[in-house]
Every structure is written in C-alpha cells, then in structure tokens.
Amino acid sequence: MLRLNDIFEIIKSYHPQADFDLIQKAYVYSAKVHAGQTRKSGEPYLSHPMAVAKILAELRLDEASICTGLLHDTVEDTLATQEEIEQLFGKDIALLVDGVTKLSQVKFKSTEEKLAENFRKMLVAMSKDIRVLLVKLADRLHNMRTLQYMRPEKQELIAEETLEIYAPLANRLGMGWIKTELEDLSFKYLRPADYQDLKEKVGKTWHERNRFIEEVLEDLRKALTDAEMTGYDVSGRPKHLWSIYRKMVDKNMNFEDIHDLIAFRVSVGTISQCYEALGAIHTLWRPVPGKFKDYIAMPKPNGYRSLHTTLIGPKGERVEIQIRTFDMHQVAESGIAAHWKYKEHGGQPVEVNEVADKGFVWLRQLMNWQQELRDPNEFLDSVKVDLFSEEVYVFTPRGDVIELPRGATVLDFAFAIHSNVGMHCISARVNNQIAPLRQVLESGDTCEVITQKNQQPNRSWLEFVKTSRARTRIRSHLRQQERKRSEELGRELLEKEFRRYGTTLQKWLKEEHLVEFLKHDGLASLGYGKTDAKTLVQKVLPKELLKSQVGEAPKSRFGQIIDRLSGKNYSGITVEGVEQVLVHYARCCMPVKGDPVIGFVTRGRGMTIHRRNCPRILELDAERRIEVNWDEGSTLRRPVFIKITTDDREGMLAEISSVFSKMNVNISEANCRTYGDGHAVNTFKCGIADLSQLKHIFRALEAIKGVYSVERARSILS
Ligand code: MN
User: Fold this and answer.
1) pLDDT digits over 604-646, tens only?
2) Where are the alpha helices (DSSP H) in 35-166?
3) In Å, what is the CA distance from 61 to each residue of 29, 182, 396, 582?
4) From ligand 1's centre to the CA of 102, what distance in Å?
5) CA–CA separation, 404 vs 388, rounded Å?
6) What is the rounded CA–CA span in Å between residue 420 and residue 470?
7) C-alpha–C-alpha distance, residues 184 and 190, integer Å
8) How far apart are CA 181 and CA 594, in angstroms?
9) Cα(375) to centroid of ligand 1, in Å?
10) Dihedrals φ, ψ of 518, to 5°?
11) Active site residue 76
12) Which long-range contacts (CB under 8 A, 24 or more apart) does 594-599 make?
C-alpha cells in the first residue's frame, strides 16, 4: 500500500517548505475516522484518500489541496463533521472539503448533450474554488482506476459519467494526462470488446512501430542538429486508444488505414525556436498541405499551445509532429495545475500574453496574480472559478438542476419548475431557510417552493423576475385579470343603459345586433371605453321604446370618467381639450408640470398621470393610454422627492434649507441619513410648481460645496 512518505517525497520535489505536519495530521485523522471501512476491493478505505492525495501531489498542488484529498470522504462517509474539520484544519480546508462533499451529492442523470454541458458548468460554478474541482477530478481518476471491483451496471454508469462530464472538464482545464487516462478507462468499461480488440491490434504492431519511431526520431535529431539547434528534446509515443477509436468511428476507417497512430513531439526552449524547428523539419520531409496548425499564435480555448504539422515521412507514411516549448508542454499536460509554481523552486513564469486567449481570461488573471503575488498561498486564495459567470445552477429538493440567468430570484425558479407553481408561489425554503419571492439565488442553492392555492400574480412581481418565461406568464395573467374586470364593468354599463329605457339586458339577449356585439368581445370593449353603451342600445331597441327614455342620456365612457371626476378638484391636466379633469399622479414617477407625461385610464379611479419615461408604463395596457397635456395656466404645486448626496459635515443641512427657503419651496418631509464612510444622503419632499423651478433648485443645490449629486427620487426613503 501507498505510504505517506511516498506522497511527502513527491511534494518535497516541488515544494520543500510545505506544511508536512498539517498533511500528517490530516492523514492521521482520516485513518482514524475511516478505520474499519473497506473499499470494494477489500483494501482498507484509507487507501483511496491516500491515492487521491498522491494524484494531487503529482499535479504539484498546495498542502490545502492535498489535505483535502486525504479528508475528502470523511464528512460524507464517516461520523466526522464539517465543524470538526474546521476546528482541526482551519477554514480554508473545511471549505474545500465541504465543496467536494457537495459535488459528490449531485447525481448526473441524463446523457443528453446539452444537459451534460449544463452539468459540467454547474460543477464548475459550484466549486467556487478551482481546487475543489481538481480534488474531484483526482477522486474520479482513482475511482476509475479501481472500477473493476464494482458491479457491471455500476461500472457502465460511472464510466459514462466520466466520459460525458469529467474528461471534458479535465480537457477544459487543460489537464491533458488526466483527460487521456479518464477517456481510456471509460472506453474500457463502455465498449469492452472494441477496447480489447484495438488494444491487441496496437500491441501486435508494437515492434514494428517501435522501429519506425526510432527511425523518425533519428532523422528528426539529425535535422535539428544540422540546423544548429541545441537543448531540444524529441519523443514519440502511441496516441491513446480512445482517440484512435474516435478517429476510426468518425472517419469510418479501419485500424489498418490509420497511419498517424503516433504522436511525435519536439520540445524546445523558446517560441522562436519552435518556428526554427518547424523550418528544419519542413526541409527534411514534405509537409501535407492544409495540415499545419499554429496554436501558438491562436491558442485553443483551454490554453493549449503548440505547432502541429503533418509530413510525408521516410517510408511515405504520414508523420504527425507537435512542436512546443517545455513550458507549453507542462501546461498541456497539467493545465491549470501547471500554474501552481512555487517560488522557492523558481521556474520561468509563463509569458502571460502568450497563453491567454479571449475565452480564457480567467487563466490570464490567474497568471497575472501569480506574478504579482509573492506568497503561493496568497495566490491560491485568489483563485476563484469564474468560468461560467452568466448562469447560476440551483437544485430542486429532488436534486434536479435548474439553470437560471444570474440575478434570478425564487420566483423565477418557481416559474422554471412549472407555470402553475410560479402562479401560486408565496415563498420558498432556500437551503432550508425561509426566503421571500424576491431573494436572488446562487449556484448550489437548494430551493423548495412553497405555494398557496389562492395566491395570484401581481404587478409588483414584474419588478424582480429575471427570466422571460416568468415575465410572460405574469403579464398574460395580469392581462386576463384586467380583461375579466373590463367585461364585468362593460356588463354593468350595459345593464344600466337598458334600465334607463325601462327594460333589461336579459330581455334583449337574443336580438341580432346584441348577439353579434357580444360575440365579438363587446363587453370588454365597453369596459375599456372603446365602444359606448348608448349607441349600442339605440341599435338594439325599437324606436318606440327609445322615446320612453326614463333617465338622462349617459355620456361616452370618457365623458363618464370626466363627469364623475371633474369639477370637484383642480388637477392641472387637460385631456383632448377638456379642462379640469381630475387625475391622480403616479407615485412611481411623481410628475411635475413641464415633465412629458401620459395618462392611463384606470377602472374606477379615473386617470393616472405618469412621466413618459417612467418604466412602469411599459407594463400598462396600451389600450388605456391617453394623450394628456399640462394645463398651461395651472399654478398647482406637485410633491417631488429630491435626494441630495453630500459630505457628512456640520452646517450642510443649514445650507440646504437656506436654498429651499430662498427659492420659496416648502419642505413637507425630510429624511437625513449619514453613513460611516463620511457621506450623507438627505431626501426632501417639497412642493414644486414646475420643471423650470425644479431645475433652478437643482442648480442652486449643486453649487453648495460638498454636494456630490442631486436627483429626483421615488420616495422619502431612497
Ligand atoms: Mn472519494
């Protein structure tokens, strides 16, 4: 069995100053809590965390990662608790162990490609710290290496998950050897017959191929030496089985037809030597047109850099060669882990702008940090995963994953589950704590929606939903509600009109005009004020009856509103030339004379005046929109909230109030708050006559020394 000392030896080779006591402590603790447990292989359970720690050491990771490798199954599988781990090993390691534990609780269910991609993203987003992901990959690698002890059904499931999820993740992180090994191990369990067959074929031609490799390498060395190059390294080895198999399947080829089974590699010191070597090799053999790829000038999204070329070799065979620097090679093999460099060991830092690619910004940042920070631990602290920042991944209580845009709330989540759940959602339990509808969700949250039968969407919901799905459903529900109310109102108006002629709506329901009218949403259009009851009734009733009118002729829908409301109060607004309409002013935007405005007919409440740039009007029914104007002659004062951000200094309030009084403005409410950081926010409710007065006040306030900003606010609290 693997001994702790073996792991120490590896760590010493790259990080001699590591905290070996801490690692030893993690080892002892893991041995204690796993005591008595065995693996399916019959080995003591401890052999697994040990093997994981060794892989992490081979990746040259820091002591926290290695401790996490030793402890990664303790919280999940033993009596150990998160609190205990934190007490013994500190917050950093406790968080890493918690991250790995959380990842293992997520089960991948579908092999559908899009879902697999989501799942990968979610794992990354959940990991928060890249080391969590690296420990998880090491864990998976060792489980794959010992997969033969599992039941066959289990083997297939795990292998599938590895191929769909973990190998691409390793690739994404640029960890070539882990990706390769995971793929071949998955291949072995997923298509055992093909795997064995291919392995045998590759094995049979081994001798022949070895001779071929030696020949090619000999020629390469000679060409490079002739070109007066030194310090290079050449190698050739068979490609991994899965990649050969993929090629056979994708190109529908037999094994015998595949010639580039071997990957030749030339490693050199600098980038300019890469191109020099390329020149030398292209003189040696004829390159195959269209096969040259410059991944140094155009790195792959995962940071991979190399020159690739294919040539017609000594026996007319195709020879594929990769040319790269030693640094590039390290990155290609261990990817992100290659950037953990330890100061005491030196090593040339990778040139930042060479590795970085647009899609790989986080890696660039990694390396920038690495150069700026002296202490490797400090460097690790700043390594946070930000690969897929535009989405969050939230769990249902059953463990399904819901993808939402960043900023999405509990309500979005509810609508994502099902429209009916969204409609009746009243709150939720997020990670077992009661949360309001507007709470923003984060990756890794578990959300359980709480519904109530009589709950209904309301307009304020639109303020905090982020997904168009939720928005559309809420809007359409609100429209339906509004329509229902309009129909009720329309019926009421119509019944009233019939009564004025001493008859009832009920009696005339079969009359053809009325039948036709009702068929075409007549009631709603009456309610909205688009048609009027009087005209309709005149068409329906016979002339004799019309003469026997009992009450006074009602006005149009508009007239009704205006009648009902006008003459009682002076509003400052004119509508289509009608003066003195009673309106009320929207609280959301607090219009003042001079602001461009628009009116909305509100059932039973007359008209509401909004500013034209008020975001709320987009939510209102366009059908109810009415052009309105300010009454030029009006001297009505309107309340406005003015928010002033200032220095928190003595005498400031006095100066502000003196501006108000000089301008002859009344303040009816004030809210003044100071913040610890030396600034204060003062909000005043004042009576303002018009926009030009408001502008004057703004200018005077802005002129006060120590005033940062003056703006209109929605309420005294803002
Ligand atoms: Mn494990």
Assistant:
1) 556 788 998 888 887 777 767 777 888 777 777 888 999 999 9
2) 47-58, 63-71, 74-77, 82-105, 113-127, 130-145, 152-161
3) 20, 20, 34, 74
4) 12
5) 12
6) 11
7) 10
8) 72
9) 30
10) -65, -30
11) yes
12) 594/630, 594/690, 594/691, 594/692, 594/694, 595/691, 597/573, 597/628, 597/630, 598/625, 598/626, 598/627, 598/628, 599/573, 599/575, 599/625, 599/626, 599/627, 599/628
CA of 400 to the centre of ligand 1 (A): 22
Q: Widest CA span of the chain, in angstroms? A: 118
Residues 304-362 have pLDDT tens digits of: 889 999 888 877 778 889 999 988 887 777 666 655 444 333 333 333 333 333 333 34
Residue 310 φ/ψ, nearest 5 degrees? -120, 135
H or E element: which one contains 607?
strand 606-611
- What's the CA gap between 684 and 13, in Å, rounded? 68
Q: Which domains are assigned to the chain?
A: 1-85 (1.10.3210.10), 199-337 (3.30.460.10), 389-466 (3.10.20.30), 475-554 (no CATH), 559-630 (no CATH), 638-713 (3.30.70.260)
Q: Count the Cβ atoms, other than its own, within 10 Å of residue 369.
A: 16
Question: What is the model's pTM?
Answer: 0.53
Distance CA 664, CA 577 (A): 32
Residues flanking ion ligand 1, Cβ below 5 Å? 73, 139
Cα of 561 from ligand 1 centre, angstroms: 73
Taking alpha carbons only, the member of 340, 308, 56, 335 closest to residue 176 is 335
Contact predicate 308/320, CB 8 Å: yes
Residue 463 is among the residues annotated as catalytic for this protein: no
Output the average pLDDT for the chain.
80
Q: How far away, in angstroms, is 139 Cα from ligand 1 center? A: 5
Start-to-end Cα distance in the chain: 66
Q: Which of 76, 112, 197, 257 is catalytic?
A: 76
